[in-house]
Amino acid sequence: MSIVEVRELVKKYPSFELKEVSFTVDAGRITGFIGRNGAGKTTTIKSMLNLVHPDGGEVCYFGKPLQGNETEIKKHIGYSTGTVNWYPRKKIRDIVDIVKRFYDTWDDEAYGKYLAMFRLDETKTPLELSEGMKVKFNLLVALSHRAEVLILDEPTSGLDPFSRSELLDVFEELKKDGVAVFFSTHIISDIEKCADDIVYISGGRIVAAMPREEFIAQHSAPGETLEAAMLRMERGEGNA
C-alpha cells in the first residue's frame, strides 16, 4: 500500500528546478532516494514536508493531501537530517520528557522497545553520543510517537562504515514492523544493501522509480554493479 504519493512536484529556484517529480513510498518497504549532490534530494524532501513551499504538484499521506491536513499527518511522520542540535547538554531522558508533551500519540511502550533496540543510554547527553547514536536518537523520538513513515535526509552521511551498516540493519528491523522508510543518500552501497525500491533523481528529474530488482534488470548490464550502472547513467550513456 502506498503511504506517500508525490505527484508532479515542482519547485523553482533561480539556478535549480524540481521538474514534475512523482513517486510513491509503500508501507513496510525501504525506499532509497539516490542522486548526486545537488540533484534535488533535499529540495524534494523539504517540499514533501512543506518545509519549503512547492510551486506545483501535490503530496499525499495515507490518502490525504498534506495541504489542509498537515498537523494531523505530521503526527505520523518522523523526519531526521541525522543530527541532534537541540538541548545538547541535557540528558536524553530529560529531552524525551519535554518532547513527549507535544504528541498525543506518544507511546511509552514503543519508547522502551526502541530504546532497548538502539541500545541508547538515557543518562547521556547528545554531546556524548557518536554520530551514529545521534541518528538513532532521532529515530527513537520519531518512532515513540508511532510514526508510520520515516523520511530521512542523508542519515548515513558522515558515519563510519560500521555505524552505517548498523543503521541499515535498524531499517530492516523497522520494516518488519510495517514502517515505511524513505532515505536519501549518495552512497550507492547503502542502496545495494537494504533498499527494496529505488527513486533515482538527476538534475531535478526522476529518472527511475521502481523496485530495486526491476531497476537492475532495466538499467544494469550482466555482472555490472548498481554503482557502475548509475555512474554510467549519470554520464548520459543510457541503459546497458
Write up what this structure looks like.
With 240 residues, this protein is α/β, with parallel strands linked by helices. The chain has two domains: 150 residues, P-loop containing nucleotide triphosphate hydrolases (Rossmann fold); 65 residues, no CATH class. It contains nine helices and ten strands. The strands form two sheets. The protein has a six-stranded mixed beta sheet with strand order 6-7-8-3-9-10, sandwiched between helices. A four-stranded antiparallel beta sheet has the order 2-1-4-5, with helices on one face. The chain is globular and about 55 Å long. The mean pLDDT is 90.
From the structure above, extract its key features:
10 strands; six-stranded mixed β-sheet; four-stranded antiparallel β-sheet; globular; alpha/beta; 240 residues; 2 domains; 9 helices; Rossmann fold
Average pLDDT works out at 90
SSE string, helices as H and strands as E:
EEEHEEHEHHHEHEHEEHH
* Helix amount: 25-40%
Q: How many domains?
A: 2
**CATH homology superfamily of the largest domain:** P-loop containing nucleotide triphosphate hydrolases
Low-pLDDT stretches: none
CATH architecture of the largest domain: 3-Layer(aba) Sandwich
Please state the structural category: alpha/beta
Largest sheet: 6 strands, mixed
The CATH first-level class of the largest domain comes to Alpha Beta
Strand content: 25-35%
Total strands: 10
Continuous helix count: 9
What would the principal axes of the Cα set say about the shape?
globular
Largest beta sheet: what is the strand line-up? 6-7-8-3-9-10
Task: Give the distance, in angstroms, between the N- and C-terminal Cα atoms.
Answer: 31 Å
> What is the fold-level CATH name, i.e. the topology of the largest domain?
Rossmann fold
Could you tell me the radius of gyration in angstroms?
Answer: 18 Å
